[in-house]
Amino acid sequence: MSRPTGRVLTLLELLQSGGTRTIAELAERLGVDGRTVRRYVDHLIDLDVPVEAVRGRYGGYRLGPGHRLPPLMLGEDEAVAVLLGLVAGRRTGLTTATATAGETAAAKIRRVLPRPLAARVDAVLESLAFTEPAGESAAPDAGILLTLADAVRHRRPVAIRYTDREGRRGDRTLHPQGVVAHAGRWYVTGRDPGIGEDRTFRLDRVNDARLLPGAFEAIEGPDPARRVLSGFATAPYRHEVTLRIRGTAEQIRTRLPASVASVTALPGTGPPSPAPEPADAREPDRSDVSDASDASDGPPWLRVEVRAERLDWLPPVLAALDLPFVVERPDELRELVVALADRFARRARRA
Predict the structure, then answer these.
(1) Mapping DSSP to helix (H, G, I), strand (E, B) and coil, where does residue 95 land?
(2) What are the residue ranges in the chain where pLDDT is below 70?
(3) In whole angstroms, what is the distance from residue 144 CA to residue 206 CA?
(4) Which positions ≥6 away from 65 have C-beta within 8 Å?
(5) Which residues contact 266 (CB under 8 A, 6 or more apart)?
(6) Rounded Cα distance, 269 and 127, in Å
(7) Mapping DSSP to helix (H, G, I), strand (E, B) and coil, where does residue 14 land?
(8) Distance between CA atoms of 175 and 173, rounded to whole angstroms?
């Protein structure tokens, strides 16, 4: 590479670092005079790189928006950061529907890395392991993602065509509040002006999105991430579970996050009185009796509501919480808890 060509590429790298660079600063960094800097700028413009001249006392040159992405000059650390980000995004499922875009971008960066650095990056990728399983391949269309993000930024209503989990398609109008990434999926949350309620949609089920004229006022309330999590906790499922758990919300959230359960305060401090048992019932657990007798001490009882398709996972979670609890409904969960306790007791008695 000839020295002038190398300086032109260095000039591009300096401009890509952001801000306005004065001619004097660029001349000093490149080791040339101001006239040569202007000539190098003309070379970049001939290559369709959008270089803008800024007039005034503190004027100089800066990169402006162009009709296509100019060549990127990345340092070694920057190239490694982008490459690892692409790999992690593909692994967690947080990519767009054009999965090949991430793969080709990663291949291009990997191909231009210096050989010693490329070998070290390959060693990282070969030795890298993830504790979570690979994300699902369902991903949003890049154009739909960009349209919804634009609607969020400018508070523009948007018309979407959505396919629900039953396979039914419909058209909706949405005042989007934010785009949220959660558990390997993309979601858009906002207010449905037709019914006046908050709604959350999976982006990979949005088939089309277009901006509508006008604008809407910002909606007060939880941030978009909290809206999505609360939507998970209140969505209709096969089982509706109501518990009373004695402890702090922070303790409960360690096992029952906001995406799974809602936690609310209860009036009073004690648990409900237990129903009378038949005479031949087994002796009650002494720990249950002590928990009821000292209800005025310690943390309060909180109502926890969970919606779930299955109940078998809840007894082990309640056991792991290690907090006093009462199952208000359903009876099926109470039976599962008793069965788990009996299994634990039998196994603990084994020699």
Answers:
(1) coil
(2) 1-2, 66-72, 93, 97-100, 133-138, 233-234, 268-297, 351
(3) 8
(4) 50
(5) 244, 300, 301, 302, 303
(6) 53
(7) helix
(8) 7
- pLDDT for 247 equals 93
Q: Which tokens belong to 31?
A: 């080791």
Tokens of residue 68, six digits? 């296509």
In angstroms, rounded to a whole number, what is the distance separating the alpha carbons of residues 106 and 83? 6
Strand-pair category, 60-63 with 158-163: unpaired
Of 138, 136, 156, 137, which is closest to residue 146 (Cα–Cα)?
156
Cα(193)–Cα(175) distance, integer angstroms: 7
**What stretches of the chain show up as alpha helix (H) in DSSP?**
3-16, 23-30, 34-46, 76-92, 99-112, 115-127, 142-154, 224-234, 249-253, 286-293, 314-321, 331-349
Side chain identity, residue 137: S
Structure tokens at 292: 């009821």
Average pLDDT of the chain is 82
Q: Which residue has the tokens 């020699």?
A: 351
Length of the chain: 351
Unique residue bearing structure tokens 């349209």: 147
Residue with tokens 């999926």: 185
Looking at the DSSP bridge assignments, the partners of residue 174 are 158
